[in-house]
Design goal:
The complex is a heterodimer of chains A (319) and B (348). Chain A folds into four domains: 74 residues, Arc Repressor Mutant, subunit A (Orthogonal Bundle); 47 residues; 85 residues, SH3 type barrels; 79 residues, Alpha-Beta Plaits. Chain A has ten helices and 14 strands. A five-stranded antiparallel sheet of chain A has the order 9-8-7-6-10, covered by helices on one side. The longest helix of chain A has 18 residues. The N and C termini of chain A lie far apart (64 Å). In chain A, 39% of the residues are buried. With 348 residues, chain B is of the alpha+beta class. Chain B contains 13 helices and twelve strands. The chains are: A alpha+beta (319), B alpha+beta (348). Chains A and B meet through helix 1, helix 2, helix 5, helix 6 and strand 5 of A and helix 1, helix 4, helix 5, helix 6 and strand 4 of B. Strand 5 of chain A pairs parallel with strand 6 of chain B.
């Protein structure tokens, strides 16, 4: 897709301000600074060279040192008043500061002290430059799992080392395995470790709050071919439909659902793909109060039987 | 015919012209003198082009101000206000720029992503060197997409402008229009929330962004309501603040619930002697006593019910009642009403 004119304009303005602060800069370095190709930088310089104040005579235009440019170095000689970097828009400042604050709160255990200091100084500088704009939004990311587990995962990621995990799955079965960590994904609900699992020789997402123990091994982690979107959980398995009262709307909001259908009486149906029966049974137990129907119906029988067995176990404790 | 001037070039010419103008430029002057506007085929086409460009500049944070001149009636001119144009003095190291690039990736919403990408482009102009991405290798913090309502709500909170939206109440499923003075947006486990003053109810309320149906409309002028006092805001946020920590005492079958055991703390020294308790003591012949700290009773009850009879709540009793309630309701799931029974057979 072609770049939007507004995005291109922002980069052109940014480039002038940047070049004004830096004297001569090689084309490659400008490209790296703004995350674009050298061809794009040259196209941008061509545009800048023909823009200026009305009249558009040579002295009206943004100008570069032609000799330097022939040698691949961009040296700005006339900025036409655009030397100052553009301020951040309100929403831009809010979004960045809120994200930095959230990272500061949640990634503490995962960052080395020097990294924490960089995060803090970026936050301080940005807050100073934007005022208190960011109080509009407060993002809190999940802080999951034991601190020593988070620290071990972070160390393994940083040093590119293999990890030994003791992990318990949704069915309450604990296993031991070695993994090559790829990414620690922290969202507002949970933290997940995306890793290549040597036990199954495939990529797996591990919930950090279910990692019982993580040990950094001496072995280096190997590189694996992991798809970009592998850190988004996509279940496969049986299609199950829950028909729920409105109060249980959180199910549609917190589970990976395939479809939601709002019904005229205020109830709704969600379709779920269920990979782990234990996970579904747990979900049905939680929403039993608001469950109108579950399809297939055998699931209701399974859950009811499990609940009755649990009630028997509770008998000695009374109410 | 001269070759058409592309939009980004026309926009840049407009910025330079409005930055350098001695006083102001009228629309007519822009049309005559700024390169790019001569391409407009008609008055209407020019009007549309100029209005759109002005909007684009303002959206990017470029302060295009209107200047009316005394004695010229409706003769409106424009300039860019250089005093508010610039970022306050700031220098960023490569590592700091790297952290900011990571922060820009936190947002999953398209609108917020656009904002953070723009912010990053602006900040790169004051970066010493290209961003260093080696900082937090392998960390991917992110906040879930909040949907189309988030960006207009951020604007409204910032501008102190009331909003109107259609909202589906969770308790009843009722869909109603709500008019709200927005105070603050919160991302919390469980989703995005708007906290504000509900004008119809005349009280502070929280709204889940996921239950807003359709668009959010901004009402009236900016600055239309006073920002909440610290006390008002705190009172409205109390229900989203972390609760005091309490201790659950659980009787767990051997080898089970290792995720719970991993969070366990030692038994408090001054705690009751459960082994001597007539009801609990016998259970401990086959079960381990595990002490788990918690803040939200219903969250823990939701978690514990998944273990069925493998984990029994010894204390506190409210937590046990919570779990028992869920179990008793679930125990009735296969004894439904007559029509469901028929359906059950059809599926069976």
């Amino acid at each position: 897709m072609a770049e939007r004119a507004s995005d291109r304009l922002l980069r052109l303005l940014g480039m002038v301000a940047y070049l004004d602060r830096h004297g001569g800069v090689p084309v490659e370095a400008v490209a790296e600074q703004f995350g674009v190709s050298t061809d794009q930088v040259m196209a941008d310089v061509d545009t800048l060279w023909v823009t200026g104040t009305p009249g558009y005579f040579p002295h009206d235009l943004i100008d570069f040192d032609g000799d330097s440019y022939d040698q691949g170095v961009v040296r700005l000689t006339e900025a036409r008043g655009l030397t100052r970097p553009l301020r951040l828009g309100t929403r831009e400042a809010v979004a960045l500061v809120a994200a930095l604050r959230a990272m500061d709160g949640a990634l503490h255990a995962a960052l080395a002290p020097a990294e924490q200091a960089v995060l803090r100084s970026a936050l301080d500088k940005l807050t100073a430059a934007t005022g208190d704009a960011a109080s509009a939004v407060d993002v809190r990311l999940a802080v999951d799992g034991a601190p020593e587990v988070a620290a071990a995962i972070a160390a393994a990621l940083r040093d590119r080392r293999r990890l030994h995990l003791r992990y318990v799955n949704a069915s309450d079965v604990a296993t031991e395995r070695d993994v090559d960590p790829v990414r620690l994904v922290t969202d507002d609900d949970r933290s997940y470790l995306l890793a290549w699992c040597l036990l199954v020789d495939d990529e797996r997402l591990f919930r950090v709050d279910r990692v019982l123990e993580a040990v950094v091994l001496d072995e280096p982690a190997h590189d694996h071919d992991v798809p970009e979107r592998a850190d988004v959980y996509r279940p496969h398995g049986e299609l199950v439909t829950l028909h729920l009262a409105s109060r249980a709307r959180w199910v549609a909001e917190s589970s990976p659902v395939e479809a939601v259908r709002n019904l005229p009486d205020g109830t709704f149906e969600v379709d779920l793909l269920v990979e782990q029966p234990a996970w579904l049974r747990h979900l049905v137990l939680q929403v039993a109060d608001d469950l109108v129907e579950v399809r297939p119906a055998r699931i209701a029988a399974e859950v009811a039987a499990a609940a009755r067995a649990a009630l028997v176990a509770y008998e000695p404790l009374g109410e | 015919m001269p070759p058409q001037i592309p939009a980004h070039e026309r926009l840049l010419n407009l910025v330079i012209a409005l930055v350098n103008t001695s006083g102001r430029m009228t629309k007519e002057q822009v049309r005559r003198s700024v390169a790019g506007y001569q391409d407009a085929q008609s008055d209407d086409a020019f009007e549309r082009m100029f209005e759109r460009d002005k909007d684009t500049l303002r959206e990017l944070g470029i302060p295009v101000v209107t200047v009316t001149s005394a004695g010229h009636g409706d003769d409106i001119g424009y300039r860019i206000d250089l005093d508010t144009y610039a970022l306050p003095p700031i220098d960023l190291t490569a590592a700091e720029l790297g952290v900011l690039a990571m922060a820009a990736q936190v947002w999953q919403d398209q609108a917020m992503r656009t904002d953070t990408t723009r912010a990053l482009t602006k900040l790169r102009a004051v970066g010493e060197a290209p961003e260093a991405n080696d900082l937090a290798v392998g960390l991917a913090p992110r906040v879930r997409a909040a949907g189309g309502a988030l960006a207009p709500l951020v604007d409204a909170v910032q501008a102190r402008q009331a909003v109107r939206f259609t909202y589906r109440a969770a308790t009843t499923g009722e869909v109603r229009t709500r008019t709200v003075e927005p105070w603050k947006l919160l991302a919390r486990p469980g989703g995005w929330l708007l906290v504000g003053f509900d004008r119809d109810r005349q009280a502070s309320r929280s709204f889940r962004l996921s239950r807003i149906e359709g668009g959010v409309r901004l009402l009236g002028a900016p600055g239309a309501f006073a920002a909440p006092t610290a006390d008002e805001l705190e009172a409205a946020l109390t229900q989203w603040a972390p609760r005091e920590e309490r201790l659950a005492v659980l009787a767990v079958l051997p080898e089970r619930a290792s995720a719970l055991r991993a969070r366990a703390v030692p038994a408090p020294e001054a705690g009751p002697d459960w082994a001597a308790d007539p009801a609990v003591g016998p259970l401990l012949q086959q079960r381990d006593l595990v002490h788990v700290p918690f803040r939200s009773g219903w969250e823990l009850a939701d978690e514990l019910v998944g273990y069925g009879g493998a984990v029994l709540v010894v204390a506190p009793v409210e937590l046990r009642r919570g779990v028992l309630h869920l179990l008793r309701t679930a125990a009735e799931l296969d004894r439904p009403r007559a029509e469901d029974d028929a359906e059950g057979r059809a599926h069976g």
